[in-house]
Specification:
There is one protein chain. By secondary structure, this protein is α/β, with parallel strands linked by helices. The protein has nine helices and eight strands.
Length: about 280
């Protein structure tokens, strides 16, 4: 990865931080995003120290805010003359329904609309840097998901599990549709399941039962370093040169749920997402 530039969203902890360390170890220039400027810079410093790579940059942005995503994209484009890999890693889950500054349900906004918008905003740079890659961290939870176009924002009936599963299915549909639209450009798009990993995921607003079970379950889960292995593989492996529109788990291609390959739903989700972010540049069908 020497000479290549990578942007990883949600890189201050967990899988994102471990992914950043792994790619920095391989010689990449790595940018990470986080909500808090101080914490993000501290994480970047720790990644520099852990990897021995001084080229680690901190970009502060709240990925639930469309205005901040647009500001982030502008900052990245100014800082990086080339962008070889975008890792859409930031994600979350909340036990109760929260609404963002844009009036969106937070799970849908962070897990799906953020990667949709950011990817489109930096796509020209990815194309100019081709061969390049867009890597989207989904989850095996997508198999329980359904895109409910009549209640995407969970206004009528909110369930944390349903919102999360829907957003992770949306990740794969987005990645597959992006791969289709970018065919022949040299930009590949793939998604992945990192495994069930012991992190502080969802800690802001956890269901009580999860808090109680945490001490028993965590020792059985993957470490962030183990969970990051598939992200690192999909972002960097020469074996995947030109491979696009695939879903990976444990560093191997895997068949996602049947719903993840529905072209009609993928196309409709793309259009609805574009409307929800006020229109996006680039990538026409």
């Amino acid at each position: 990865m020497t000479g290549k530039s990578v942007l990883i969203t949600g890189g201050t902890g967990g899988i994102g931080r471990a992914t950043a360390i792994g790619l920095a170890n391989m010689g990449a220039r790595v940018g990470i995003t986080g909500r808090d400027p101080t914490r993000t810079e501290q994480a970047a410093a720790e990644i520099r120290s852990a990897s021995g790579n001084p080229d680690v940059d901190a970009f502060a942005a709240d990925m639930t805010s469309q205005a901040e995503i647009r500001r982030l994209a502008a900052a990245v484009l100014e800082a990086y003359p080339r962008l070889d890999v975008l890792v859409n890693n930031a994600g979350g889950s909340w036990a109760h329904r929260h609404v963002t500054a844009d009036g969106m349900e937070r799970t849908f906004a962070l897990n799906h609309l953020a990667p949709y918008l950011l990817t489109n905003l930096v796509l020209d740079r990815l194309e100019a840097s081709a061969p390049s890659r867009v890597v989207t961290v989904a989850s095996g939870a997508h198999a329980r998901g359904r895109i409910d176009f009549d209640d995407l924002q969970g206004e009528r009936a909110y369930s944390a599990n349903r919102a999360y599963s829907q957003s992770k299915l949306a990740n794969i549909l987005f990645s597959n549709e992006l791969a289709r639209r970018l065919e022949g450009t040299g930009v590949t798009a793939n998604s992945l399941h990192p495994g069930v990993v012991a992190t502080n995921f969802g800690a802001e607003d956890q269901a009580r039962f999860f808090t109680l079970m945490k001490r028993l379950v965590f020792p059985l889960l993957k470490t962030p370093e183990q969970g990051a292995q598939t992200s690192i593989y999909v972002a960097s492996s020469p074996e995947l040169n030109g491979v696009t529109g695939r879903y990976f788990a444990n560093r191997k291609p895997k068949r996602a749920s049947k719903a993840a390959y529905d072209l009609h739903v993928a196309g409709r989700l793309w259009q609805v997402s574009s409307e929800l972010v006020g229109g996006t540049p680039k990538v026409q069908s």
